[in-house]
């Protein structure tokens, strides 16, 4: 009964979707969590279906709330999930990923458009991302109505509106195309899909590792760069606190999520290097006078992908899968470094600072045998990375990598 009324009201009144409907969604998750043992077998399938329906709507607030509620549902109840329930949850996430990849962002063309003979070269000055926060908590303060909700600690995606899927203002307005009503509707729908992608990436990270854990890890990595303390052994999952839901998922379920993250990352980087399409969208007024980019999707999806792979690679309970995990990890790192070497813009490379630090810090924490395997696979690429004008943190950790490489392969004497 509620589902039918819920959808009918949403379709009839957009304002209701962002107020009463939004609050009701969080309340449903709270009630389901409180009576999980009773309601699990009765309502879980319907609840997942409801949340999936929410993210399909062309309403930013409702779409984001649907993703956030899914995260809250899993974090609050994941310890009680059976393997079958985890299959359903992972499948729901995969459906959301697949249905919200903004494919039309790369294919849209204005009416009567003809492909120019020569596409313009990338404009490095237009790549730097400009993030906008619209009426959201920025000083750690949360509105009263949100305090009782399980909030995403440290997430910057949850305060992003569709205005964040853009880059800096262009040097001049070259627009010769007037948006139609149909164009505007399509653009809004595309922007919402971009927001949902970011939200879901952060949700997976928060679900697997618990909210704010990855942010704290990045802070620790930066501190290690400053101290030069990368000589500790690669910790196994049994040796450190693990508050997230990672340990409850099977290898197949984790690889399903990894494939979603990889698909999202590849789409984003393909769009970010398609300067002609980005210029076309800017001239069409896709988002004001800004050239759109998916830099945050490109970097956050890869960061989560790397964290999960490195986590599996150190998990002694999954030793039988280590060869498969190692092969995948080497492949992902190699593809990432190859892409980094093709970037022509300093500002674009700057967005990869934490990624380079994450990748190398994980390698430097490996035991000698594993370090040899990965260093030999990525040595040539990392030599090429040195040619760029890098940030100090990147230079420092590259130095640590080459110093250890010299010792491990007996290139230099210990003395």
Walk me through what this model shows:
The chain has helices at 2-12, 14-18, 20-34, 36-55, 60-77, 83-100, 104-107, 181-209, 213-227, 251-272, 275-283, 295-313, 322-342, 346-350, 353-364, 368-385, 392-408. Mean pLDDT is 82; it is low at 119-161, 166-173 and 232-239. The protein is built from 17 helices and no strands. The longest helix has 29 residues, at 181-209. α15 (353-364) packs parallel to α17 (392-408).
Number of helices: 17
Shape summary:
flat
Q: N- to C-terminal separation?
A: 76 Å
Strand content: under 5%
Mean pLDDT: 82
Main sheet makeup: none
Structural class: mainly alpha
Order of helices and strands: HHHHHHHHHHHHHHHHH
Low-confidence stretches: 119-161, 166-173, 232-239
Percentage of residues in helical conformation: 55-70%
How many DSSP-defined strands? 0
Task: Work out the radius of gyration.
Answer: 23 Å
Briefly say what this structure is.
By secondary structure, the protein is mostly helical.
Notable traits:
mainly alpha; 415 residues
Q: How are the secondary structure elements laid out?
A:
Elements: H1 2-12, H2 14-18, H3 20-34, H4 36-55, H5 60-77, H6 83-100, H7 104-107, H8 181-209, H9 213-227, H10 251-272, H11 275-283, H12 295-313, H13 322-342, H14 346-350, H15 353-364, H16 368-385, H17 392-408
């Amino acid at each position: 009964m509620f589902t039918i009324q819920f959808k009918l009201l949403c379709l009839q009144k957009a304002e209701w979707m962002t107020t009463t409907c939004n609050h009701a969604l969080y309340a449903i998750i709270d009630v389901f969590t409180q009576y999980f043992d009773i309601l699990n077998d009765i309502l879980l399938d319907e609840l997942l279906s409801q949340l999936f329906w929410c993210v399909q709507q062309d309403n930013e607030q409702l779409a984001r709330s649907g993703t956030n509620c899914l995260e809250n549902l899993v974090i609050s109840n994941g310890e009680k999930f059976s393997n079958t329930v985890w299959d359903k949850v992972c499948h729901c996430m995969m459906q959301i990923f697949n249905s919200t990849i903004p494919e039309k962002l790369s294919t849209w063309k204005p009416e009567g458009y003809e492909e120019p003979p020569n596409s313009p070269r990338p404009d490095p000055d237009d790549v730097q991302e400009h993030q906008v926060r619209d009426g959201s908590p920025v000083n750690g303060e949360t509105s009263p109505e949100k305090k009782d909700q399980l909030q995403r600690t440290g997430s910057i995606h949850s305060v992003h509106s569709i205005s964040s899927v853009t880059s800096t203002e262009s040097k001049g307005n070259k627009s010769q195309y007037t948006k139609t009503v149909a164009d505007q509707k399509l653009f809004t729908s595309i922007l919402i899909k971009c927001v949902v992608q970011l939200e879901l990436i952060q949700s997976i990270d928060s679900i697997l590792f618990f909210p704010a854990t990855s942010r704290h890890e990045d802070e620790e990595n930066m501190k290690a760069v400053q101290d030069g303390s990368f000589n500790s052994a690669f910790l196994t999952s049994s040796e450190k606190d693990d508050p997230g839901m990672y340990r409850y998922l099977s290898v197949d379920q984790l690889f399903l999520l990894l494939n979603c993250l990889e698909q999202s990352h590849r789409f984003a980087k393909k769009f970010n290097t398609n300067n002609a399409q980005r210029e076309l969208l800017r001239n069409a007024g896709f988002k004001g006078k800004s050239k759109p980019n998916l830099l945050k999707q490109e970097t956050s999806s890869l960061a989560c992908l790397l964290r999960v792979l490195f986590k599996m690679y150190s998990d002694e309970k999954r030793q039988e899968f280590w060869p498969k995990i190692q092969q995948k990890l080497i492949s992902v790192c190699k593809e990432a470094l190859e892409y980094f070497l093709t970037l022509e813009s300093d500002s674009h490379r700057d967005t990869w600072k934490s990624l380079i630090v994450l990748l190398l810090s994980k390698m430097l924490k490996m035991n000698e045998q594993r370090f040899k395997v990965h260093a030999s696979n990525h040595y040539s690429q990392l030599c090429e990375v040195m040619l760029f004008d890098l940030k100090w943190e990147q230079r420092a950790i590259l130095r640590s990598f080459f110093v250890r490489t010299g010792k491990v392969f007996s290139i230099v004497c210990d003395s």
